[in-house]
């Protein structure tokens, strides 16, 4: 099976992916394209930690290959999933030539559309399956533009249309200023800062905490106070402590194990990685050359709503990276009427989170006790996804 799809006229960009068929009924079930955030985080993050059928066994590394074990909460129970390493330079994706143009948000929307067209061309048995695109974190900047791009492409001649049916995003970035400005009200709501500090911040900074006027020294001083309070908070999941990821007791140690796994020669042979195509495999390559040219994904959400695409937007309510308050604020700004108001959604007799639906077929859901990605509450995330993708209320 091919592991790469070549992009561009000369196919100089080689995008690597993992593909896993649905465990239920791959002929009928939807196809989900999953993107990890970053930009520059390998889609192995989704596959091994968030919503895939395998995970890395949590044990102290002793020089032997970390083992993979199966999970019970995979989204592949109800859909086939393509986990894509993008942009080029992420994970195992590479370029055969020196890149002329740096990858960018809008460029990725075009590249990934081309990837899908070529992938479906090679796997025509999936052409008629419903396609959804999804991701979390920084993917919130790319996925809405990608949905719009695929939709536009479907009206052009000569290529089989992509059967796009909607999109799903977890704790998605939407507009840096909006997302970050909501961290302070969130910290206050979670009792990480005092009422007094919050009231002063609101009054002196006027709700603008991300880009502070350098002349407003009083605001800068208050933001500094806030920073001291939250400095040792692990933002992606505020219940965890910050720790050294090389320590086996640290939550992030599990990511280190995937680095040992993906850099193993036998693993790379099994994955059919082109020899010497990349240097060291890095799970999240933070220095990736990349242009963030979409300043806000909100207009894309608006267009996709107008075009009738359903969406599921979910937030782990213990994430301070992209707090749910910011997500709720931009959803409100779309000005769609509420069709089903705020209510708990249940798993058995337990509250798993809260949800609300809008007239534009957008469902918003919180995952109670969840963090920045589905990995912190995998079972709840999986049940939420299964219900939504099957067209049931949460």
From TrEMBL:
GO MF annotations, alphabetized: serine-type carboxypeptidase activity; sinapoyltransferase activity
Keywords: Disulfide bond, Glycoprotein, Secreted, Signal
Keyword Zinc: no
BP terms from Gene Ontology: proteolysis; secondary metabolic process
InterPro entries referenced in this protein's UniProt entry, alphabetically: AB_hydrolase_fold, Peptidase_S10
Family: Belongs to the peptidase S10 family.
Protein name: Serine carboxypeptidase-like 7
Classification of source organism: Eukaryota, Viridiplantae, Streptophyta, Embryophyta, Tracheophyta
């Amino acid at each position: 099976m091919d592991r790469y799809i070549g992009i561009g006229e000369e196919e100089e960009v080689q995008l690597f992916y993992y593909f896993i068929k649905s465990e239920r009924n791959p002929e009928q079930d939807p196809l989900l394209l999953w993107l990890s955030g970053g930009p520059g985080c390998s889609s192995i993050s989704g596959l091994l930690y968030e919503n895939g059928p395998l995970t890395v066994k949590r044990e102290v590394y002793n020089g032997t290959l970390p083992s993979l074990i199966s999970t019970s909460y995979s989204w592949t129970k109800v859909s086939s999933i393509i986990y894509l390493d993008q942009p080029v330079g992420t994970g195992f994706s590479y370029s055969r030539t020196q890149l002329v143009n740096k990858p960018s948000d809008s460029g990725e929307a075009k590249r990934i559309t081309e990837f899908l067209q070529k992938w479906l061309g090679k796997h025509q048995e999936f052409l008629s399956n419903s396609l959804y695109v999804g991701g979390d974190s920084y993917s919130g900047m790319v996925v809405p533009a990608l949905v719009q791009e695929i939709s536009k492409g479907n009206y052009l001649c000569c290529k089989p249309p992509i059967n796009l049916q909607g999109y799903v995003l977890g704790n998605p970035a939407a507009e840096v200023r909006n997302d970050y400005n909501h961290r302070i009200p969130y910290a206050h709501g979670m009792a990480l800062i005092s009422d007094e500090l919050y009231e002063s911040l609101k009054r002196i900074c006027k709700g603008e905490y991300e880009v502070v006027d350098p002349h407003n020294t009083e605001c800068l001083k208050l933001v500094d106070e806030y920073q001291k309070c939250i400095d040792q908070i692990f933002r992606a999941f505020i219940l965890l402590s910050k720790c050294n990821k090389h320590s086996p007791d640290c939550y992030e140690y599990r990511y280190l194990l995937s680095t040992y796994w993906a850099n193993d020669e036998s693993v790379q042979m099994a994955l059919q990685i082109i020899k010497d195509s990349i240097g060291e495999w890095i799970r999240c390559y933070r220095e990736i050359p990349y242009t963030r040219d979409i300043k806000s994904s909100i207009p894309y959400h608006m267009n996709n709503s107008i075009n009738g695409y359903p969406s599921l937007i979910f937030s782990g309510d213990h994430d301070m990276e992209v707090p749910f308050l910011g997500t709720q604020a931009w959803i409100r700004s779309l000005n769609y009427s509420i069709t089903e108001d705020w209510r708990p959604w249940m798993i058995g007799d337990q509250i798993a989170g809260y949800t609300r639906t809008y007239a534009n077929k957008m469902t918003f859901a919180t995952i109670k006790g969840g963090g920045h990605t589905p990995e912190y509450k995998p079972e709840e995330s999986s049940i939420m996804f299964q219900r939504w993708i099957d067209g049931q209320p949460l």
